[in-house]
Fold this protein.
Amino acid sequence: MATQLGLTEDQKAEVEKFRTDVVEPSMSQLVILDFWAEWCGPCKQLTPMLEKVAADYADKGVILKKVNVDEDKFIASQFQIQSIPTVYAMFQGKPIADLGQARTESALKQMLDQILTQLPVESDEKQQQAEIEPLIEMGEQFLSDGDNERALSAFAQIMEMAPTEPKVISGFVRALVAMDKIDEAREMLAQIPEEVAKDPAIVRAQAAIDLIGDAADSEDTAPLRAKVEANPADHEARLELATALIANDARDDAADQLFHIIEADKDWNEGAARQKLLQLFEVVGLEDEWVSQQRRRLSAILFG
């Protein structure tokens, strides 16, 4: 029986079901909308991949909804479905992208990543990030103040909330390095999945380990300094001195030693001093004002 809107009762039921199952969730989440049918072989081949990706991206606010074109013919007609499988991304009640060309897991994830960066999708991941961000800043402040034990404790507690968050892992590892627990720091990073290891925060933590290397956290750098003063051209000894100074958190003095080598011979030992300095920048933080000042100093030497 047709309604005054021109819809039958069955069509109204389809629309209401679609509104409840798809449109309402899409107001705050990203919906992968899959049009399929029981008789469609390619649909059945695609389903496991869509389900896996949706599960992997659940914390990012992504959900999978399916529309059987035989059961929901009116909805399929509204979307002008000509062939199946047809897969759309929906947000706030509207299809925003055709995901049909993404027939592999990596291709679909790449498309979803691009979409998620552009939309205010609500997710557990974003909520958790908002909760832990102030705590991460507190841990970083402890590190900056040289209160390494409190920093380590703080990041350990945050890690219980977000064990895979790169910024938290990075802070924990850098706190270990600051406490001269290099082996523990290396072991921590060795357990990180390869895809996480590429995150800038983890790269920063690795740089902290590489920067210190096997240098002893010695209170007395006098022997190395005496060796350098006796022979200012001994770049190897000066590099060792810079590394020891870094281990003792004397970054200004360490930078001066590295700049001395670069000014004398920027290509010495395949640019070892420059690489050590860039590692120091990475560890301190590329947005830090001290790093900005030192980078200008480096540019003046290299290009002045």
